[in-house]
Amino acid sequence: MTVDAKTFMHRVANGTEYDLIVVGAGAAGMAAALFGALEGARVLLVERTPYVGGTSALSGGTTWVPLSQYAQPGEDSYENVSGFLDRAVGEHAPKPMREAFLKAGPEAIRVLTAGTDVAFRKCAFHPDYMADLEGATQCGRALEPLPYITRHLGDNLKLLRPPIPEFTVLGGMMINREDIGHLLNRFKSPKSFLYTVKLVLRYVYDRLVYRAPARSVMGHALIARMLSSALDLGVNISVETELTDIEPMGKGRHRLRLKQGAIEREVIATGGVVLASGGFGRDPLKRASLYPQGAPDYSPTAPGHTGAAHKIAENLGAHYGTAEDQPAFWAPCSIRRRKDETLAVFPHFVFDRSKPGTVCVDQAGNRFVNESLSYHEFGKAMLNSAGKANPAYIITDAAAIQKYGLGLVRLGGDKLEPYIEDGYLIEANSVEALALKLGMKPENLRASIDHMNAAAKTGVDSQFHRGETVYQRANGDAEHGPNPTLGSIEKAPFYAIELYPADIGTAKGLVSDANAQLMTAQGEPIEGLYAAGNDLNSIMGGTYPGPGITIGPGIVFGYIAAQHAIARSRAEHEEVNSTAA
């Protein structure tokens, strides 16, 4: 079934009623819509950009939901994970919100996977980021979406947000961690060679026959599965559609004003409105007032989360949380201008910072952080450096860049000349010459590298304790010792890439009760108005305890909001019917 979501509003009459209206089509919004549709509700999903998926479609898609059906019996417990979150989050977010998440999470995942095409598998080994805290686990909480073949979507494939080009190969083939391992070993292992041949042939076939890749992985696969399910369940989808106003009508009913191109319509939500528009990260005024000083304008997130829906909600009495550790989640990113003049903002999550043969330094050439910390903690260290490490540099040598890559330089032997020519990659034949090119004292950079070389031999980083937790070691090279994250930097030429502390999503959001229903500053619920995803104040309080702590709660609070809203809608219908009788 082909759905023309770009002209949907043309076919909607003013005053059309829906049980549930969801604003924003990232993972949280699409989940809320699916949960509503699974209850038999009439659902409208509104997205202001041309694509569904938001930043979730560009992400790894990891979904942190403890105690789901994918966890092995006895490997975790409510008390264990609750204690872990208490220690990780503390007073940065209300405990009742975490409790609501933990209690509803397993059921949300069960309902979603039983009733839709959404499918996960437990990450075999994906430690919590705060691995040194009591209650942390190495697997069982982080779920990853299964790859998905999308050919049956036909023209609806155009609704899916395209992946970041730099995260694909061969001009558009999406790959995940498993694929990368086989691609790198294709000439070393018969199994990997056959895997690679099948992967590439399937991609070529799809491009020839369907003119588009048909295999979707990671966050893109999660969104593709959600889109397929939404179409099957009859969710009405309208893209390039802007929410311009919400008018309360009493008893939790709301009239929404929507604009799609030149077409304006008024529709009514009888059960609830779920705001899942992705936060305010693209609002320059809120960035200036709510982000820490020195946060750059660069961000690898999808467009669309302008905070416009927040302003409407604030006019209805909603307000932002105040106790968070950070107003956003951070990651060190490098930037490069593409051939089409768009800007690539590349997040340095795990593929280079934790690999042997790298070191990160501030503008003076001094180490300032444990390089193998989570990307959020690394970004915090950059922002907390009083400008000394904003921007910072990641340094490597010829041997490591050949083996592991560096930023946009792909691992496995990418040609370096284009990156050097446009200034993305800075090259020098000695450490001292590289320091001079970077405007830092040669003796400082030399001292930083000498320390790393000494640590590589002993396996002990006495300066910042790199590679001492299971999470940090997991992101190194398991075949390298004695510490999988520590390697020497000795073989010329030497290379550097500039890093910026970019936001990858907002943590500060609108305050709700445990039903995801927004509240006024006086603690009163705003009946029928909900939030999920980055529109909802982070239950992690701006901390980042584990992988997928944005998508996981986004899906679960989409479930909580939809359940509460549909129950309200049913109660209203029953009241109307009894009155009529």
Automatic annotation (TrEMBL):
Q: Which UniProt keywords apply?
A: FAD, Flavoprotein, Membrane, Oxidoreductase, Transmembrane, Transmembrane helix
State whether keyword Mitochondrion applies.
no
Q: Which domain of life is it from?
A: Bacteria
Q: Name one GO biological process term.
A: steroid metabolic process
What cofactor is needed?
FAD
InterPro entries from the entry?
FAD-dep_OxRdtase_2_FAD-bd, FAD-oxidoreductase_2, FAD/NAD-bd_sf, Succ_DH/fumarate_Rdtase_cat_sf
Q: Which GO terms describe its molecular function?
A: oxidoreductase activity
Outline the extent of the FAD-dependent oxidoreductase 2 FAD-binding domain. Answer: 19-551
Q: Where are the transmembrane segments?
A: 20-38
NCBIfam families membership: PRK12843.1
How is this protein named in the record? Fumarate reductase flavoprotein subunit
